[in-house]
Amino acid sequence: MDMLNRKPNNTQNSLLTDNIISFKDCPAKTYIDKQGKTQFGYNVFEHCLIVGEIAKALIRRFPAQLASNLFPQGSALMASLHDIGKVSPSFYLKLYKAVDINLLPKDFNISNVIPDESSWGGHAGVSALTLEKICDDSVISIIAGQHHGFTPNTGMLNANSKCLGGETWQAQRELLVNALKEALVEDFPIVKDHYQALFLSGLTSVADWIGSGDHFEAPNLSWKSNIEKALDQAGFIFPLIRKDLSFGDIFKDQDGNPFTPNHAQETLSIECKEPGLYILEAPMGLGKTEAALFAAYKILESGKSNGIYFALPTQLTSNKVYDRFNEFLSAIVSVDSPNNNSLLLHSNASLLDVSFGEEGRPGNSWFNSNKRGLLAPFAVGTIDQALMASMNVKHGFVRAFGLAGKVVILDEVHSYDSYTGTLLDELISLLRNLHCTVIILSATLTQFRRTKFLESKTSSHSYPLISISHNSNPKNILEYPLPSLSHQRIKIDFKSMDHKLLINDILTRAEQGEHILWIENTVHEAQQLYMEFATHCKELSIDCGLLHSRFTQHDRQINEDYWVELFGKNGWNNRTKSGRILIGTQVLEQSLDIDADLLVTRFAPCDMLFQRLGRLWRHRNTPRPKNALCQAWILSPTYQEALCDPYSAFGPTSSVYAPYILCRSLLAWSEHLKTGVVTLPSDIRLLLELTYSERPELGVMETLRNELINGNRNRKGLNTLQQLAKMNIARGGKTLSDVKVQTRYSIQNTGQILIVKHLNFNSDKKITEIGFTDGSRINIPWQKHMIANFEWRKLSVHLAKHIVNCPYNRMPESLSKDWCKKVGLGNVHYLGEKEADETNFAIGILSSTFELKSIDNHSNLINNNYKYTYRKDIGLRIHKIEK
Predict the structure, then answer these.
(1) What is the CATH number of the domain that holds 318?
(2) What family does the entry list (predicted)?
């Protein structure tokens, strides 16, 4: 029998009664063959069984101790039940329409079928209603129903409703459930709590994605032998960890000499014996990253964890940690581990090697490396992706599944606002209930925040400090004060907010060989400052650079590598040859190993200032000019100027940070630093508590405090933000798009602009020809069958390198989803939820004058309200057009 033209065995005997089809003959899937023709795939029973067996194999890959804690009996059956709702007349008809309506059995009466499934949430809704009738536990029906990322709206229907086929079709679905129970030798699981329900929902979706991938499309293939291969290619490779390694075996200097652990690193590794919450508060440069990684190794070695997710504040800082993390992995992962090389991190390059089933294909939402990292054994990513594990967003529970059982390291936790703080509390609770080991790293944590994380009263005011709450006895808080390795005295000079007064002094310092770091609070101010310096620096042969979040990935990586090399240890040999000026935004204050001789910074909240000071004289042996001083210049109004008119005094900074916190920070720093010197780490705890501790206020400060709590017409207050955060927590309610959801309220939603040099739509070859600014070119076919899946992955990765983020409220007009699909862009770029019309995606053609032009008329701007320019040294600039 030719299986490529296979169709379900719908003979007269298959029709039980009018329009009733046996579950054995209901198709579950279609696929496109090499000729571009749509064919039937596996039937519903076969597909559900494949997904159940994939779930079983996935469970077997977890460490035994962890698997017994996470997976209840019946987990594989739970995953298999997701698509039982495809045994329904509407779905049956839909697939025949997709393949060939003429193949439909003659006795099947189309007029009795409602083709629109939206009234009950499609086949997922039918799955939920079926299980609601069969079993007593409503959680089982919810898990099955939300396998597409959200809970379907089934209205007032029930499993026997006429539009779903009535009692006779429900009987077939019940027979299917019994057949799956028998085949998998499992019964319904007993789900103990909300957290386990999220975890099983994630298992169900992931197993379904893999079971719908390349290895399980054509039904003429033997699927059982493909399960392990599919799991390997999806990246579910749990590593073999080398035993009994010391700190020095893992961490070495550039010459290969082993490092000796300091007190903080040693203490954390000794006390990190089991899953729980571990908080390390220590100053910048103490080696907190190495402390966390060595503790993570100890947990992995003991078999109490199955991987590591290192969560950083921004994507920019994530990129530079890859090298450090890979060195760590190379040291701890046994050479005997299966697919050893694929365990290393290669940013977007890993997307070429990993085939992640249906949802992970190019053009789908989980092809994105930021999301996929959550499911890999080891990953460096952003805090945003981790936070969404606890939020009511589409496929939030897949993130929860990916993080379960891992060591989750949360870096730079101090830098999150009240909105994120509420989400972070919920994330930590979720992770602990999923048997994770959570390690929080912070240089600037307040006593109040630490107590909130630990959910118990703390007593120690020491700094540095390790605080521990083991999962086995969470109320028993252990606190370990740590000795300070050294004290650093930094001279602080408060300067006028008018930066122009400093330009000549900075140029002189740079001419004398100093490496100067200047941090602004907005991208626009950083770009303006860079352009002011660039002309002078060119005349004086001084290297000047800019780093912020509005570069394409391609240009950002080049800029970041170049400047981190010059300001880091690897640049010591060239450091004394000339001075340099690096300008940037908040991305420079986090996780980058850069070492400045002089810091200039716009005023910011207390914890941000400390982070920025951490980039100053970072290493003792860094070569420096003879006249260089450990010094920071802070551009700030006086406290009295701030009280008179805080919004005017702080300028654009007041739209980034709350004026009340800015004023409290300014008061604390100006009063405490009358000597003009800050001492690290001893002043950190003191200044943080002076800034953030509760106190009565009068006059202007009382007004600003009320604005902070209750908000004003331009800014939401803490009360509203906390309510918003609680509404977004995954305990029910409407599921949000994971593209638009905010995990940090101070960060705007963004759209994306693809920046190209040439664009041509070749209707003869049915391809879109794109030339990029770096001289590279790609051709995107308009139809999926024209090239292999691996080629699609290559195109998608290449395209992603030339996309820049743009604030949503200043985006050009988005391209239509239908148009993007027509010209093949939907095959390589995720265009948003199926239900959404807009894509938040635009294309700009870069002109010789660096302006971005429209695709239909190169002489027009791509937005009538804004002018857009892009340069590889400046990034995306957005100019309001005066009318």
Answers:
(1) 3.40.50.300
(2) In the central section; belongs to the CRISPR-associated helicase Cas3 family.
